[in-house]
Amino acid sequence: MLLARRLLERVAGIVLAILVIATINFVLVRAAPGDPALVMAGQSGATDEKFIAQVREEYGLDKPFAVQLLTYLGKVATLDLGYSYRQRRPVSDLILERLGPTLLLTMSAFFISLIGGVVFGALAGLNHGKWSDLAISLVSLLLYATPVFWLGLMLVLVFAIQLEWLPAFGYSDMRAGTFGPFAYAWDVATHLILPAVTLSAIYMAVYARLMRSSLIEVAAEDHVKTARAKGLTESAILRGHMLRNAAVPVITFAGLQVGALIGGAVVVETVFSWPGLGRLTFDSVTTRDYPVLLGLFLVMSMLVILVNLLTDLIHRLVDPRVAVS
Amino acid sequence: MNRREFNKMLLAGGAVSGLGLMGDGLAYAQTETGGLTAIIQPEPPTLILAMNQQIPVGTIGGKIYESLLSYDFDLSPKPQLAESWTVSEDGLTYTFELVKNATWHDGTPFTAADVVFSCAVMLPEVHPRARGNFDRCESITATGDYTVEFKLKEPFAPFLLAFETSSAPIMPKHLYEGTDFRNAPANDTPVGTGPFKLAEWARGSHIRLEPHSGYYREGQPRLSEIYYRVIPDAASRAVAMETGEAQLSQFGDIETFDVQRLAALPTLELTTKGYEFFSPVLWYEPNLRREPFNDVRFRQAMRHLLDPNFIVERIMFGLAEPATGPVASTTKFYDGDVTRYEHSVEKATALLDEMGLTPGANGNRITIRHLVVPFGEMWTRLAEYFRQAMAQGGIEVILDSSDVGGFAETVSNWNYDTTCNMLYQFGDPALGVARSYISSNIRKGVMFTNTEGYENAEVDRLFAEAAVQTTDAKRQELYSQVQKILVDELPVLWMTEQKFPTLHDTRIVDLIVGATGVNGNFADAHYA
Questions:
Q1: A99 CB near a chain B CB, below 8 Å?
Q2: Residue (of B404, B448, B391, B383) closest to B422 by Cα position
Q3: Looking at CA atoms only, how far is residue A147 from chain B in angstroms?
Q4: How far apart are alpha carbons A323 and A309 in whole angstroms?
Q5: Do B409 and A279 touch (CB under 8 A)?
Q6: Which residue of A140, A324, B135, B234 is most buried, as measured by CB atoms within 10 A?
Q7: Could you give the 3-state DSSP secondary structure of residue B130?
Q8: Least Cα separation, residue B231 to chain A (angstroms)
Q9: pLDDT tens track for A46-92
Q10: B203-228 pLDDT tens trace
Q11: What distance in Å separates the CA atoms of residue A14 and residue B199, rounded to the nearest whole number?
């Protein structure tokens, strides 16, 4: 009964959060200077008032702000994200066709950074003060300090231009539609390597540093000393007493990272011509395509809420104290 | 080891793990099949050329749609959907004989009814530039299945230049008649009479065009396919050209500082031909409603502080020529016999002294603001140069940044001191020059008008008279007069005539065959 009530409260909270987010998004987007009708007129070389008036009327931009907001919220309530001013297509279609590439890129980067960061961080933490710790810490610091776009361009220079091992950009070969399923998957995978590594670099560095310091901290705690005094093997201590405790801050950060990954994908998707949500966001900002922007913000917010929910659940599994509290 | 060898190595590894059934799909060079991969940036929002005339839409739409005419490098008209035409002596009636074997991409025959529907009904509703041209017509009628007659209310000398593809794309009547044009189902798939038709559009990635098998010119098109690859990052576009992943770039795809490096590659050829119809002129634009820009002496001082040769050499890297006035030397009725402003700090400071703008303790005479154009690196450098050049005369410049949306709103609502601008001329001063200087085109809230706010009754009269003259000699006389007045008064500070670079694979020939260059239909382009 208590669980059901808590679940209900959580769902109500999520719905409320989505409504508040939708309202704030709408207000913020409209607060930015710039008129979509003028941008569209500018891009079309249109130099008459009739065109601008047509665009404003067609998309309801000539109506009072409050009416536009209520109309938008009404549509959100019925899961209607509207129609793109610029591309003249349903926003949901635009987002859905870009969602796959973005999820592929961000999730690949997420797992590369998480696995790499945890492994290297654990190695550094367990070899605290030795040369391997120093080397991993130094590389982590370098990766953390390297601008994402610069790293991307350097990887292209080395692996695409100099060595010619990997494609420089794109999601797949343009003829990939004629490939068999395995060849297609392989083609996408080769295109994925450089952008995924670029996007994951900074987070891998953060995970490594986080894991290292967390492991050093846990190693000094009483329960680890007790386990060692009991005569447990080092591997048993590591698995049973150290890694699990050291992982808690990493999991917390991982949950927060997903939102940032989608944001960071804007730069990586641009450098690597990756047809994802990041680029759609960038294009929509520059052209003031309000419906697409609002749809994207809403979908990204919902993804972050979902991931936070998952993070909470994983916390409960890893750390029983969270479940008790 | 190159990428193919690397892929083979990986494929060998893949075979072990069950991924070996790949065939030979990993072929990257499009040229092996007689196809062409070109860069496109930004990705067009639509390919329906009647609905949107943004540059990328014109570039791709120019292969799908056609108009009645195309234009040679000297802007003389050539046949396209019209195989011949006549103009009455009074300059009021234009009669076009159309090709008789053209079909739309869906197989429906093309007739004069399509031309009448496009020019009299659809384009005036949805296409601002076409509306401006065809509103001059008293009637547009089909006098036969393949004959169309345009009767004008009064002579309009550049009327034959109104039939360029992006200015007047002929649309299929059978698909649009009786529909809400902007939301018509036909907008989902472009159907034109051009040599290529849409085969695939992978949003965010590429657009593929394939030959229109029913094209009306024997043996054309000669390319087996055209891919337009969307590459948003400038460095990645340069990489694509360098590695051969793309064989064609156009307009501003490649940053000016990268062009000569790429042009030096043995695989690529550079041409600046094919932009004669557009002939863009770049200028710094003061807001004449504000002081001190409303004083011609201040504008002349600014002009003396600016050196177009510096812009040509250091910002455009040779991809421009100094402009002498409002009309580009490649546009009809250009006259270079106008006042020349030499780069002279002395002359500038003398003019500023005469205005009473004396230097303060910090050496500054006055502080102005400059709105930076948010379209890329070249524009940022132009703003930085402007600040440095003005500083030589004691004019402090504060740079204001904005994004595209903010820029359009600020300029069209006249909320700036100075900015930069570049406009196409469309082959004739009446089409692309007058709009920036006639007082009837001072229209708040609309871009590409007389945004600087220049007013001169004599200039208005000369532009109006020149547009309706029927002889080139008379038009030249009037346009020469107006160019002299404008250069003396400097409503804007003309700097350069842009020479857009087209880089293409050296093996491709007959690609750039007229004044609209890469926006042409590529019907005859092929590998040598």
A1: no
A2: B448
A3: 16
A4: 14
A5: no
A6: A140
A7: helix
A8: 5
A9: 566 777 787 788 778 888 888 888 888 888 888 888 888 778 788 99
A10: 888 999 999 999 999 999 999 999 99
A11: 43
